[in-house]
Amino acid sequence: MNLNIIIDGLLQYICLVILLTFHEFAHAWVASKWGDDPARLQGRVSLNPIVHMDLIGTVILPLAALMLAGAGSGLASFIIGWGRPVPVDMRNLRKPRRDDTLIALAGPAMNLVLAFALMGVVKGFAVAHMDGMLKVTALMIQISLILCFFNLLPIPPLDGSHVLKNLIGMADETYFRLCQFGFVIVIVAIQIPFVRHLLGACVSVSMVTFAKAFRV
Question: How far is Cα 75 from Cα 86, in angstroms, rounded to an integer?
Answer without folding.
Answer: 29
